[in-house]
Amino acid sequence: MGSILHAGVGAHSSGVKHADSAGGFSYEDSGKLLSVTSNRYIHWSTSGDTVQFVEQSLDTNLLNNAVRLRIPHCPLLPGGVHIQETLNNILILFATSQTVHRLVLPHPMHMYHSDLVTELQMQSIFTDIGKLNLKDPAHSYVLSFAQGSQSTGPSSTAAWISPQGEALFALGSPLGGIMIITLPPHDQEGTVSVVELKQSSVIQRIAGWMPTAIRGDQSPSDLAISLVVHQLEDDTFVFALCQDHKLRIWSIKLQMCLLVTDMLEYMPVGGGEMRNSPGQAHKLRLCFSSTTGLCLAVYLAVPKRSQFCVLQLVANENSRYSLDHISTLFSTQETLVDFVLTATDVWGLWLDDDNQTVVKYISFEHNMAGMWNQVFVQPSPPEEVHTGEDQDPRETYLDILFSPVRFSAAAIVKALQIYKRGTERHFDLSWEELKKEVVVTLENELQASVTEYEFSQEDYRLLQVEFWSKFYACCLQYQEVLSNPLALHVSPATAMVCILKKEFVSFLLPCFAVDHLYLSSDEYFFSEEETPIAEDSDMSRDILLLVQCLRQLNEYLTEDMAYEMEKAVENLLSPEKTSEKIFEALLASDTETGIQDVANKLLDVRNPIGAMNLLLRELDLETDAETDSRPTTGQSLRVRISLSQLYGSSVASSLICQGVCQTSMTRMLLCRDLLILQQLYLHLGDTIFPAGGSQLLQLQQELIPRCSHLLCTYHLLKQMSLTLSSSVPLDILNTDLQHLSVLELSDSTAPATNRSVLSPQTVLELFYQNVARKVIVSQIFSHQDMMANESVLHWPQMISSVLTLLCQFLWPSNPSFLFPECLMGNCQYAQLQEYVRLIGPWCQVNVGSCRFVLGQCYLANGEGQKALHCFQEAAAEVEKEEFLMKLAGSDDETGTTAPRLLYYNKVLRLLEDIGLPELVIHSATLAISEAVNDERSQAALWTRIFKHHLDLGHNTQAYEALTQNPDPSRQLDCLRQLVVVLCERAQLRDLIQFSFVNLHDEVVGIIESRARAVDLMTHNYYELLYAFHINRHNYRKVNQQIDILELKDLERDYILARSRLTLAQQDPSSAPIAGGASSVEMVTLLVQTGLFDTALMLCQTFNLSLTPVFEGLTFKCINLQYKGDQDQTEAWNWLAANQLPSVITTKECSATDEAWRLLAYYLENHPSQNADYHRCVISKLLSHSVPPPDWLVNAHKVIDAAALLRLYLNYDQLQSASELVLEYVDAMLGKGYQYFGIERPLSATASLVWLPYTSIDQLLRSLSESQINEKMYKNLKDKLTEYHRLVEQSSRHKLMAR
Asked: Does the keyword Zinc apply (predicted)?
């Protein structure tokens, strides 16, 4: 729930309580695919002084989409909320017993920068509702008759927005008549106006009205019980159904009553009896359409004779209005909660005597003898849970409580709070955490009640049932309260019907023909004369009779019998044998000749084989069509983006997948009953089949196995729609997805939904969201011209297509393997194993693919040998199944490689990525048998086998694999690797003893090459070569291999080895890297560790530049200077490893001072040409914005002042550059010339002097470009002018002296 806001307006408590109510609003363009508001709606509910709004979309998840408003002491009127859409805004008008309010929210079209919304989530219109001033008098009004009184408040309400933008409220006054309150447009100044619509007493007498109360009731006769409003041309009509049973039509423009109609005149009988009783439960609804015009539906609540009257408003030539009677529809006798009038139908919502929700609809013009169409509402959870003797009570109750389609989280949370008798809140728990909390709570209660130390297992089981049934009853009670229906909503744009309940919303899905027959009530079923399943009337009759027998047989099944079939299918037992067993039990328990009655009815079915065939055909969703998941071509970007979001929200996902679940449950029961009925047919035998044995044989060998197959299939679909997906830890998820990526199957994404933690996601929802939805939508719209017709989102048609296609994708006998592939790609391994288990005994499609994904499950569970066995079994089906062909195929492979080899290559890559070398060797050995005529593949496989044997230390097996390799190039590579690895492992005995048949010269060449390339201190390959020849008695070769090594080379190798040792002692973690590092790499490692003395010595030995040493030391100085004491301890450690210059001082030195002193010492003792090292140090400092210390600057001045100036300019150090030039010019003129390395200053007798004019000109230009440096620029220009004057003077004197 989003914000909880208070909208106080200074009203007093009215003391009036109203019933909870609800309603809905659909956007005008909710049926248009290319609209931001497609499939988008708002629903609200009121309870006391609180109203809750929720905006939802079937296409995208809306953020901040719920808000709860509270108007203290002001109960919301039933049906007192009205929402209207304008071009720029959504306006919400609502009325309480004492106040009226207006909320102005932005229209979704104006909340986004573009009408092409590509995000998976969008902001709701309620996102910024907290910024509204709900107490603004411009948007609220306190009713005058309610102030300071204990008035009952308005009896009814209606509200609308005028064409001028005013907000108008029509309120049924408790004193009679109608009060019209008008708020000025929300964007204009204005005052509230109040007008009362009430006829004078004269008019009342003329019309036959009695101003007195009805039968002594204190309320007036014209008290408006129900109000609706409609704008016609330039006027607005208010239709008021009053408690005197009269319908009054008021004109807002004329402020007068235009028409009064006595609704009791439309009652065939009993109207007179009602005249003196107030009609306080009557209801009025309105519908306007271009085809029917303006129609009204009046519900007359009359005990035992309730009815709906549908009337049409007609305008005469003289602008007078009348009501034409269209039809009268008699209601069933349940308690009406709400009803809706559409352009063609009346939809009704009732509660029956058992407090169960009933929904029906009827065409008010074209209906069969007033017969209402039945809507099959999802039944409430069972009042009692059947627990078999072999079942764990806890698990049985948990399965029902936490099934995604049974109980809401809110009901379980409320029951848990009551059960724990505390105030602890559980709203922040996830679905799994809530489940654990329930288990812990009940287990603690159970343990606390046990007083005996020992009792039998059966007693403990009974105790469990007692506690769990008690908690279950509590949940059931809250679920019933939260499921209490409040209203119906029918979207005019999409024809979507919703039941608005106290805590949530239920959607109505279209019912398929075969499900409709099986579920229909007897009353409705017996009125059927034909069915769309059959094409001719005789077959229709047979099917209806057959289904009637099915329904009758169902009534005789006990809970134990139903459980027995459920258990059999779950445990992979034969449904045929189980149905035979159940049928025998029915025969044995048939004391009232019920089965005989069914058998007699079966005699009337003329063609039972044909009827069963048709039923099974309707139930079978097997298709030969290939899955085309490619994007539809030829559609515009807008259409493609809209299609990519269609039905993509978590609400739509949950709704559609629950539809699959309900369909599967219904059809599973139908298949079960049909299977038992087929056993009855077998039992009757020749008495019912006049054709004799051929029909019995067809029944036994074809129809019964087919029905059994369908039963198992629908059980599978039901289980997958109820099985929750697992939340995989992120690290495991990333690892598994990385392993799966080597298969190169698809870009399937990991589960990433935006569902509430208390809204569990099933694996079917996971599949629908990640894979199926895009493919389904693409198939539905592949042949439609979207631009020609935007209003394509007709809910019953669309959702029927989506459900059918989704079931076909799940159908295991279809070629598509997308569902198991999705489970594998999202690491749902336990669920995938269950899927494969359930289809194993009876599904013969994609057998190899199932073995492969099962192998992947075993891999994830660490059962490598089982996985390898599955992969081996799958290999036989590679060329037959689409999934395995896709798995084997690769753009990098040539068309000459056999599919099975490509398949094994993917398996090998998978096993290598996971790190299972033994399985790689085994798989590669199997693959070699498939590569008899493919040398290239053989070479690759032997190379793989060699590599993994070598890694495992199987030296002999590695050598054998090397010798089997048919590719000389790969063989040589393997040989080289064998020599190097065995040398590094010091397993020289194995290397020497191998025979190396036909490879002797290659081995010698490899060893000689390595001997010349590798440091002798690391590996002495000469000794190996010596031993190799000695072992083969080749003494001539031994003599030729003795080389004389120069002392210089030994010294270099020694220093490099000593450097590695020093590094390893200082930093043990670097030892593995240092072992094979070259001299250049060692310098870098030594500098990083702080071993600068060692690095300098190594550079000098190998004639390397000292620049990396100076740069590294400079960087450490910078870090120490700016990190303070943070790294002092570490710094002293590496400083101690270097030879610091000794100096006598009374000052306590820090590590930072010592580091700078070490740098100065190095610069002094390692001079460079043109001061390169000074320059690199200063450059490093300036690159980190660190000013060089004075001693360094002074040293550089003496060596090369011009280079120092260029460095300053390179790093935009204009201040320092200017000061340097000023000092340099002064030095030229004799002031401090010794600090710049100038032997004699400027004079007539001195040698020639010069300035770096190019750099100085660059400095002057930079200074002149900024006003900040204006003073510096002037000083520098003045100094240069003075210098030039003295230079000119000295030059003249020198010329004169000549």
From this structure: no
> Given a cut of 90, is residue 1103 above it in pLDDT?
no
CA distance 241 to 1189: 96
3-state DSSP assignment of residue 1070? helix
Q: What is the amino acid identity at position 1140?
A: L
Length of the chain: 1298
Angle between helices 704-722 and 650-684 (to 10 degrees): 150
DSSP assignment letter at 1198: H
> Which pLDDT score is estimated for 518?
92
Q: Dmax over Cα atoms in the chain, in whole Å?
A: 150
pLDDT at 95: 94
- Asked whether the beta carbons of 14 and 97 are under 8 A apart, the reply is yes
Averaged pLDDT for residues 581-606? 86
Question: Does residue 7 come out as left (phi exceeding 0), alpha (psi in the -120 to 50 range) or beta?
Answer: beta
3-class SS string, 318-331: CCCEEEEEEEEEEC
> What is residue 267's three-state secondary structure?
coil
The runs of H, that is alpha helices, within 364-424 are 393-401, 409-420
Q: Is 477 helix (H, G, I), strand (E, B) or coil?
A: helix
d(CA 521, CA 371): 12
CA distance 398 to 449: 21
How many other β-carbons are positioned within 10 Å of the β-carbon of residue 575? 24
Reduce the DSSP state of residue 110 to 3 states and report it: helix
- More confident position, 885 or 1170: 885
Q: DSSP characters for 1131-1170?
A: HHHHHHTS-PPP---SSPPPHHHHHHHHHHHHHHHS--GG
User: How would DSSP label each residue in 626-686?
Assistant: PP--SPPSS--HHHHHHHHHTT-SHHHHHHHHHHHHHHHHHHHHHHHHHHHHHHHHHHHGG
- The answer to whether 547 and 561 have CB atoms below 8 angstroms apart is no
Where residue 996 falls (left for φ over 0; alpha for ψ -120 to 50; beta otherwise) is left
- Highest mean pLDDT (candidates 808-812, 910-914, 1104-1108, 1142-1146): 808-812
Cβ neighbours of 482 (radius 10 Å): 16
Share of the chain above pLDDT 90, in %: 40
Supply the pTM of this predicted model: 0.76
Distance, in Å, from the CA atom of 752 to the CA atom of 703, rounded to the nearest integer, reads 43
Tokens read off for 366? 């074209």
Helix/strand/coil for 770: helix
Is residue 402 scored above 90 in pLDDT? no
Whole-angstrom distance, CA of residue 732 vs CA of residue 743: 18
Structure tokens at 456: 């039998």
Containing H/E element for 561?
helix 559-570
Q: How far apart are CA 26 and CA 497, in angstroms?
A: 11
Residue 206 to residues 200, 319, 974, 1174: CA-CA distances in angstroms?
Answer: 10, 21, 114, 116
Rounded Cα distance, 1166 and 1237, in Å: 19
Query: Contacts for 1041-1050 with beta carbons within 8 Å, 24 or more apart?
Result: 1041/1008, 1045/1016, 1050/1016
Instruction: Find the DSSP H helices in 818-929.
Output: 818-825, 829-839, 847-860, 864-875, 882-888, 899-914, 917-928
Angle between helices 650-684 and 795-810 (to 10 degrees): 70
What letter would DSSP give residue 108?
G
What's the order of all strands across the beta sheet hosting 345-351?
A: 335-341, 345-351, 357-363, 373-375
Highest mean pLDDT among 96-105, 193-202, 415-424: 96-105
171 close to 179: Cβ distance less than 8 angstroms: yes
Q: Is 294 helix (H, G, I), strand (E, B) or coil?
A: strand
State how far Cα 128 lies from the chain centre. 24
